[in-house]
Amino acid sequence: MTLAHEIAGDGPAVVLLHSSVCDRRMWDPQWRLLTDAGFRVMRPDFRGYGETPAPASAYDEARDILRLLDHYGIERAALIGSSFGGRVAQEFAARWPSRVTRLLLVCPASRLVEPTDDLRAFGAEEDALLEAGDIGGAVALNVRTWLGPAAGESTRELVSRMQRHAFEVQLAAPDVAAVRDDFDLREISALTLVLSGAHDLDGMQGVAVFLAEHIDGAVHERLDWAGHLPSVEDPARFNPVLVDFLDDLRDP
């Protein structure tokens, strides 16, 4: 399967990997910024999100990204992953470290960290709403949980639309298991920055700390204004962090 995606610009490659609350549209505030700044930027929709259909057979999100890079002949790229996209990015960087120039994990999830009570409570409430057929309630729960106080009404509406679409696509599809290969964070060689939001769930903030401690040389920065999705909550404050992290990849 080919993931729905966009690619534009010239220069060092940057891949934007979206949260499971969103799809590739979450990167609208960064798309033109990065292409204008001299990067070749790609943003895919994972399977079951945005314009990519739900999977029909076993799949591997990180390998999907590898195939997309190979399709365009991109040997090395910076990976920018938000939440679930951060989980995929860390797995990719550990499995194919030579392919990654920079790794920015924005409020990332991780399979290597056990969920805390607040994350379990969220999951249980979401499951109950979806089992009851209350998609609207599940959407509202996600928006309420994952967007911090800096997010405006238009952002909340966009995230609601993206999350509702993902629920509708995934609930209509057969239950297909993903392939979960083992990986070792110690294999990551790219310069790594891990961001967390002060208004995010404690469990997610703990994941950021864990990753920063277990990826060699990684730096952890806590954004005091942010919730779980800082790139959409306040692009004016997030974008300088992003550009500064990528800046020295460009030719002088």
Automatic annotation (TrEMBL):
PANTHER family hit by this protein = MONOACYLGLYCEROL LIPASE (PTHR43798)
**InterPro entries associated with the record:** AB_hydrolase_1, AB_hydrolase_fold, AB_hydrolase_sf
Identify a single GO molecular function assigned to this protein.
Answer: hydrolase activity
In this chain the AB hydrolase-1 domain maps to 14-239
Looking at the record's lineage, which domain of life comes first?
Bacteria
Please indicate if the UniProt record lists Hydrolase as a keyword: yes
- Mind telling me which SUPFAM superfamilies this protein's record contains? alpha/beta-Hydrolases
Task: Identify the species of origin.
Answer: Agromyces neolithicus
Name this protein carries in UniProt: Alpha/beta hydrolase
Record Pfam families: Abhydrolase_6
